[in-house]
Specification:
367 residues, eleven-stranded mixed β-sheet, 17 strands, alpha/beta, 19% strand, globular
Length: 367
Amino acid sequence: MNKPKIIAFYLPQYHPTPDNDKWWGKGFTEWTNVGKAKPLFRGHYQPKVPADLGYYDLRLPEVREAQAELAREAGIYGFCYYHYWFGNGKEELELPFNEVLRLGKPDFPFMLCWANESWHKKFWDKDGNGSSKELLIEQTYPGEQDIIDHFYRLLPAFRDPRYIRINGKPAFMIYKPEQIPNISEFIKIWQSLAHKEGLEGIYYIGHLQSIDSIQTERTKINLLFERGFDGVNVVRISRPLAVTNKFIKLINWGKRRFMSRPRTINYATAIKYLSNENDMKDRVFPTLIPNWDHTPRSGIGGLVYTGANPTKFGKYLSSVLKKTQNKLPETNLIFLKSWNEWGEGNYIEPDMQFGHGYLNIIRSYLS
């Protein structure tokens, strides 16, 4: 079997920042919501409790080293750090990656995903009700000079020998490509600057959040290719709910309306829709979803995959590996969502329920 490179999305939110202190109170991090989460129905595993690494602080280099070691032992190829650039030089949560770059440690491959979306109060809602529309930071696109400034802000990362390259080009993912005005012009400017600075170019990956049919999804994938993207990463978290029948949707509505329960779908059912034949297409990079529980952030507005565990994840992983086994080694990538999004119940770091279960499953299937 052609072994793929599994790249795990990495959330750099676990450290205090001046803006989070201002919005939520001194010392707020993702752990604030994780630690105070409560079970909302029988058998609901909350709060999620980290095991080996504890409630860590990403300002500490030893934590980042330990994370990389756990990932390396499991056979994970690298991390894809979320990168927040809001325009006019405004960044958020940049400290952990800046330290990775400055120190040269951990010696573990990485790439960046530009999470280009505005932040509203519900993004990390301290009250867990997910209801506020209050704007915290607006994602802006000021124009050509900002595009140039953004490139040069990331140039040291692109030049780092640890940076993940595809066909010799640094890989860069854009989370919401459809929101960028004239995305083709953005790509053109960065490609020109990359060649000017001695790089072979940038390998652009468009992130596609899909709830569509296989045919409609394929159309959207091809549209991203036409706009200049080299690859497409497809994630289908809400797709399982979109295809459920009206009766199940009515039950979920009733649970939320009258029982204060979040929407739920069984993980064994969900995984049937998290991958499809489009993942077999060259330069389409599927996404693995090991688990999902958004209630620490959104309360009853969240979605929960019930019954998720390493064994079921292993069967799902096996099916994705079979779909990708005939791809060219250079572009046989699978993204894992995520390494450490604890507030979304979406992580494979060790916890008190499954320990190293998810990591062990990845290692066993890759070997």
